[in-house]
Design brief:
The protein has 4 helices and no strands. It is mostly helical. The chain has a single domain, classed as Endonuclease III, domain 1, CATH 1.10.340. The longest helix is centred in the first third of the chain and has 13 residues. It is elongated and about 75 Å long.
Length: 104
């Protein structure tokens, strides 16, 4: 069935194979395959991918497969500066108190 450019109708079509409680939010390719068996609209694959990418339920339950690292802070030093004219201190805060202290 060919679908006209009606976003409400497309969302209702997407709900059955993707957002229905029995469907269980399958991935992009599986959802696209299920929808395109019965329906077609121009740029349908891209529209489905965009909807799945913005799904709040999937974002909340997504497994992180890579560890994000905090970028290192680059210490700026003047050219030809004499040694030991700049001092940098790293503080570790938010620790549980031990003997009255909560930071390093």
């Amino acid at each position: 069935m060919v679908i006209h450019l009606d976003n409400d109708l497309k969302r209702r079509i997407l709900r059955e194979p993707y957002d229905h409680w029995v469907a269980g939010h399958p991935r992009r390719d599986e959802t696209t395959r299920r929808i395109q068996c019965n329906y077609f609209w121009p740029l349908g694959r891209a529209w489905i991918a965009q909807c799945i990418k913005g799904c709040a339920t999937c974002q909340q339950n997504k497994n992180l497969t890579h560890v994000t690292k905090t970028p290192l802070y680059k210490i700026t030093v003047l050219e030809n500066a004499p040694q030991f004219t700049q001092i940098v201190i790293d503080l570790i805060t938010g620790l549980p108190k031990s003997q009255g202290y909560a930071l390093i």
